[in-house]
What does this fold into?
Amino acid sequence: MRVGVFTPLLSQLSLAAVLKKLKVLNIDTVELGTGNYPGDAHCKLGMLEDDSALAEFQKILADHGASISALSCHGNPLHPDKARAQRDREVSRKTILLAEKLGIPVVVDFSGCPGDSPHATAPNWVTCPWPPDYLKVLDWQWGEVVAPYWMGHAQFAADHGVKIAIEMHPGFVVYNPETMLRLRSIAGPSVGCNFDPSHLFWQSIDPIAAVRVLEGAIFHVHAKDTQIYPANLARTGVLDTKPYTEERARSWIFRTCGYGHGAEWWAEFISTLRMFGYDNVLSIEHEDSLLSPEEGLTKAANFLNSIVIREQPGAAWWV
It folds into this structure.
């Protein structure tokens, strides 16, 4: 196991400056956005058709002794706005092609969320089975939009030797282990998950138990924490739509690793990942509104590096 960083939090810096900064934190693995929600500050899809830019990109990585854990293009390929959906789909397809060219085995994405009918203009995330209208919407979404797209896109990824890691994220059709496994049963083994425990905590899903449920389907892992505030939870429940910056009023917020759950929890989480077949990267994602990117990154890196001991030649990884 090793610690990496998802770099959008450092988008104001050049890739070389990012790698230099991370080296000080004993990190030499990065996850790079290629567009859609993460942006493309450090990895341009134009490199697919620009050999000199690709060579320069690879030289920067080599000069800093850095590797890439995944390319990420989190978007909504099922958006009811057809132009928006097509844009996000094209970014995802090109990201898979760039991953193939760079020899990167994993692309991270969202499952997407359709509207409630062919005439919708906004996504509709169904969260309850009643009134019955919602189950009809859900059946239509999976049967008419989700399955056709993901069967084809998963095959495209498989044809290019790349796996797609879907981040289980509320607001999209895949948001928990059950929906993740449902999509995988439809799309096949080239689709698995980008496991981010922060999104499971607030849904009252035990991430450690979820690792066991998702055995064999975990392709990449984000390192991000969540803190629950019981005083507000009694008022709002977990489906809290207040902005993340209204920390005092929310029932939960995202936190830097260690600020929601301590070292004992993270050590067991990492150990369980290894036990069930994942022994790769913990990619730090900073979305803690109470800490600056600099502070959050430094604290998360130091915290995780104190738990994950880097492999030495001839030795195994130990947690």
Remarks:
- Residues 234 and 251 are 8 Å apart (CA to CA).
- The first strand starts at residue 2 and ends at 6.
- The domain at 2-305 is CATH 3.20.20.150 (TIM Barrel).
- Residues 133-159 form the longest helix (27 residues).
